[in-house]
Amino acid sequence: MKVLFLAPYPKYITPSQRFRFEHYIPELEKFKISYTYKTFVAEKDYDHIFKTGNGIKKTLIMLKGMVKRIFLLFTLAEYNYVYIHREAAPFGPPVLEWLIARVWKKKIIYDFDDAIWIPLSSAANPISAKIKCTWKIAKICTWSSIVTTGNQFLADYALQYNKDVRIIPTVVDTERTHNKIKNQEDKPLTIGWTGTFTNFINLSIAIPAIKSLHAKYPFEFLIIADKNPGLENINYTFIKWNKETEMDDLIKMNIGIMPLLKTDVQLGKCAFKAIQYMSLGIPSVVTPFGVNCEVVNNGADGFWADNDTEWFNTLEQLITSNELRSKMGKEAKAKIINRYSVIATVNSFTDLFK
């Protein structure tokens, strides 16, 4: 069995790729599956993609990636399956996917973990919503042998176009990486959030409660992200995300938060922030929306908070009780190992290639 993996961004950098399929790659040899892994954007070009301006440089990066993809098509004969995460190319119509499925007649395993059929753009790439051709997601689902998604909302979308849709949650490796547990006696007491700059809009939901709590209790507010959010009128510590120090940075938190806006885009989220916190024995407070309600059992391994008062009250309970944080953290870690870990889901992943 030989599989070609295609993903848009460099290896082991973006959360979507790292926690959807890259952490299964070390397990493939045990199942007699060999593979080749090709990304569209090279690591040395990645930072340029999300910088404002420099359209010529970005265009050259995209053209270089497309040329590599075209040459790759001529190697498809040696593969049994082509696993495509999100899209074969991060722009334009699904020409590559059509060629793989219809001309080379290869079986496509298609995976996505966000509502990527909804057009979105960022300040760094304001025209990206137009050039992404988000309508292609439906087409790729139609041409695929199997579609995998991170939650039921995404699966319901894919089921409109494909009968074989399987939910594989976004998970962590509790043996190799997320294998620590927070000591809730550690000081200073820290409430934390981790994510990418595209999700700063969600973070803003919890800020009023954080400000009010700061006036009453001594604690640190930690943000781990690819960019500094530049929050005003609030004390916080910013740590730039680094894959080499990620676990040491995350475990500084005593409490993790995952606020969410209630939109279809957010329904596509797979509660991964909460999963990361919980895997390290860190209780989380989350907006009760979408998969958050499945991952966090309110009052058992974390809390739900749906307005400023609930954010304040639930965080206050955790701030004032080491015992409660420790108890919830242990419950949370056990759940992740049993349901949201590589070891719990590896068979579901490798079954895709049978």
**Sequence of secondary-structure elements:** EHEHHEHEHHEHEEHHEEHEHHEHEHHH
Distance between the termini: 9 Å
Structural class: alpha/beta
Beta-strand share of residues: 15-25%
Number of helices: 16
Produce the secondary structure layout.
Layout: E1 2-7, H1 15-20, E2 34-39, H2 43-49, H3 55-73, E3 81-85, H4 95-103, E4 107-112, H5 128-131, H6 136-143, E5 146-149, H7 152-158, E6 165-167, E7 190-195, H8 200-203, H9 207-214, E8 220-225, E9 237-240, H10 246-250, E10 255-258, H11 264-267, H12 272-279, E11 284-286, H13 292-295, E12 302-304, H14 308-319, H15 322-339, H16 342-350
Parallel strand pairs: 1-2, 1-3, 3-4, 4-5, 5-6, 7-8, 7-10, 8-9, 10-11, 11-12
Explain what this protein looks like in three dimensions:
The chain is α/β, with parallel strands linked by helices and 354 residues long. 37% of the residues lie in helices and 16% in strands. The protein has 16 helices and twelve strands. The chain has a six-stranded parallel β-sheet. It has a six-stranded parallel β-sheet with strand order 9-8-7-10-11-12, sandwiched between helices. Strand 1 (2-7), helix 1 (15-20) and strand 2 (34-39) form a beta-alpha-beta unit. Helix 9 crosses helix 14. The longest helix is centred in the first third of the chain and has 19 residues, at 55-73. The N and C termini lie close together (9 Å). The model has no long low-confidence stretch (mean pLDDT 94).
